[in-house]
């Protein structure tokens, strides 16, 4: 999963887990059902418009609020390949990797990439390219052990493979 390319969806600062997947839908843990309501309180039509491989670009403190793993699960199940933000809430950061959702911290990319732009990411190299504007950005490369979690589909799948 080192290279991905998709359309950018832009969101602001402090998108909390309730905006990502509202609490009224937490009566299920089915990823496909959660995906139907992903980002519903931030953009009511998001789940119906997002395509597999698309990228969320957001402001600071993405994923703040409760510690629900449903949030990164909903994002991933909706088809989003990566979330780029200047900063992430720490528990969301950990939950994202545990569920196999790629997230990258880059304040410059988050500020410069506009909604609808085509974005290419090389997670191993930590590069983000806005193909629409031609701008290139760096993020911290994903450490090898965390890249392995992503490649395996998350922490549980990683351990299933290791124990098999």
> Given the helix and strand composition, which structural class is it?
alpha/beta
The helix fraction, in percent, is 25-40%
Average residue pLDDT: 94
How many helices? The count is: 8
Order of helices and strands: EHHHEHEHEHEEEHH
Question: Any idea what the radius of gyration is?
Answer: 15 Å
Low-confidence regions? none
Can you summarize this structure?
With 164 residues, this protein is α/β, with parallel strands linked by helices. The chain contains 8 helices and 7 strands; from the N terminus they run βαααβαβαβαβββαα. Helix 4 packs across helix 5 (90-99) and helix 7 (144-152) packs across helix 8.
Q: Would you spell out the secondary-structure blueprint of this structure?
A:
Blueprint: E1 3-10, H1 17-20, H2 31-35, H3 46-49, E2 55-57, H4 70-77, E3 82-85, H5 90-99, E4 102-105, H6 107-112, E5 118-122, E6 127-130, E7 136-138, H7 144-152, H8 155-163
Helix pairs in contact: 4-5, 7-8
Describe this structure in words.
The chain has 164 residues and is an alpha/beta fold. The protein has 8 helices and 7 strands, in the order βαααβαβαβαβββαα. Helix 4 crosses helix 5. The protein starts with a strand and ends with a helix.
What key attributes describe this structure?
8 helices
